[in-house]
Every structure is written in structure tokens, then in C-alpha cells.
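RECORD CONTENTS
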Amino acid sequence: MTRPFGYFVHHQGRGHAERCAAIARALPSSRPMTVFSARDDIFGPLPPQVEVVRIPSLFEPSGGESDSMDWVPTPRTLHCAPLGWPGIRQAMATISGWFASAEPALMICDVSAEIAQLARICSVPHVKVLQHGDRGDPGHVAAYDGAAGLLAPFHADLAQPEWDAAMRGKTCFAGGLGVDTRVVEREVARQRIGVDADAELILVVSGGGGQGFAQAPLGVGARSRPDARWITIGTVQRDWHATEPANIEHRGWVDNAADHIAAADIVIASTGNTTCQQILAAGRPWLAVPEWRYFDEQHRKAEALARAGVATVRPHLPSSAQGWTAAFAETLADHHPIAQRAMIDDHPADRVALWLETLSARLWTPRTLSAPLSTMEPPIL
């Protein structure tokens, strides 16, 4: 019987579930997989050998939590481990019970330092998904050091400089993993989204992992470039003091974000993983503005993108017409579409699936001895 893979999927944002689904579809049909997540409706079609088990959220209270234990400090090796939460107990019991009954080959963790350490404590080898950010704290270090392998859903050129050779040596880099990076022609994309072929299109992509960009600075930007057509997709924070010109249109959530990106002359977007991969694949001039995330994830990713020469970065949306003008000039002058497209690997899910299968085989292939233990000479003490 083939040992199954386990997979924990954090349910915030899109990237975690998209990566999981891509890997599940690329693995051999003989490899069972059990996915644990607080949501079971975020994966799309999955192969028949994949089971999704819904568990309570590890950080969203359900109402039965105790409020009398916050005085007990959280150890440095943990990030989110409040005391007195029945949902956390139920989630951990479900996963550890599956460890005991299924005897999995691997547990893939995307992402939680606590789940990764749980796998190691339960004697289950784990693969930890690697994210950007200031993650040199004891919790992340324990999860990384204890992992059999690390999975980075981005190109190796976007690695952070402090990741040493040992860490990179057990990392599988996979640019474009989990994202449909096929790009249609600009003219076709414009027809699909209803934009004239000769219009200058400035696209604002407000991501799904946080609150999105604010309305007021976008209004300032649209006024600073009045001949351009501005379109926003995703959630935009409404500002009571914002004054918007007629050349900006808010479309909200759309099902064809990739078409909007392919149609754009300039893209303004944060640095969430899915958005990054789509913009890099399209090779569009990109003004990257990182949003707040735990451990400064998007800011460190923005630094990596700037270092690789594939995006122009600002720490926040420009606050004046002069700021917008300067940011656009730099974005267009420093645009390197060939370098951007080189960040996307060919068939990343297939590469990851082969890497996982190879790692599993290495972990579970017994070592051969030169002679049976019963015939070996006793050691000389």
C-alpha cells in the first residue's frame, strides 16, 4: 500500500489552496492525499484520491474559548497558540489521530509553524512551504530546521540573502506554482475586458489576503494621469474624503484577473503570491506596493523583486501627483519583461510532484548494511 501524503492548507488568501490543488493534480494517481483546512470550498476540482478534511480554524474564535489564560506567556517557538481554545484542540487531535492511523509518508505544511512542529513531534517527516519575511524567530527556525525539505513557490532568484546554503540545498524552488500563467495577447485581453486597443490602461490589483488599497491615493493618481483609463479589481477601501475623477472605474472581484493584467500598460499591485506570478508571467510594467502582513512578508518579497530587477517598489501608494509621476516614470524606465518572464518555471507542479516523490522514496527506503546484524563483530570498547 502506498503511504499517503498529508497537506495542511491555511485558508486565508488564494495561494495556499491553489498550490495544494496543483500539486494534487500532478502527483501520481496511486498517491493518496489527505488535505486538512478550515475551509473545504477553496480548492476547485481535485483528483479522486484526494480527501479534504475540514478542521476548526487555528486563529478564529468560535465562542467557546476561555478568556482567563492570556496571562500565561507564549513560548518563542510558537506563534499562535492561545490557551483554552477547544477548536485548536480538535484540529490538532484530528491531524495527530490521522498521523497514527494513516502512517503518512510526508506532511506538507502550507503554512503553520505549529503544524510543522506537530508533525515532527509525532515522528512524521514534513515539508514546510517557505515564504518571504523576517522569519528568523525560533518558531520558524524550528519548523525549517526540522523539515525534510522546503518548498518555495517562487523562482530561486527571489530567495532572501540570509537563507544560507544548507537551507537552499533542501529547498525546491518552483516559480509559478499553483497559478495559471498562460497569457493571452494584449489585443485579445482588451477585447475580453472591454478596453479600447489604443487606450492607456492603468490597472490596480487590490489583493484578497488583506483589506486592499485605499481609495484616496488612487484618486490622486488618476487625476495625475487624466488621459489614462484606470481600472481597479479586488477590494478597495473607501475613504470619505476621497475625490475621484471620471477616469477611474472600480470593478470589484472579477473572475478574469489574468485578462486584466495582460491588457494593462502599467500594473499597480501588492506582492501576494498569485498576483506576483500573474504579473511576472505577463511581463508588464509593475509598480509593487507591499501591504501589511505578518513578519513583513510582502515587504521582504518586494525587496527581492526589486533586487531581481522585475518590479519597481514603493513602500506605500504615492501621496501626491508629483509622487505618482515619478513612480510611473521609474516603473516604465526600469521595465525588463524578459527578466520578469524568466521568473516563471516550466511545469512547476510536475517538478514539485517529482521532488516530493523522490524525497519520500529517500525517506522510506531502508539503509542496507554490509552484513546482517547477527553476524557482525561486536564493537571493541
Summary: Residues 373-381 have pLDDT under 50 and may be disordered. The two ends are 42 Å apart (CA to CA). The first helix runs from residue 15 to 26.
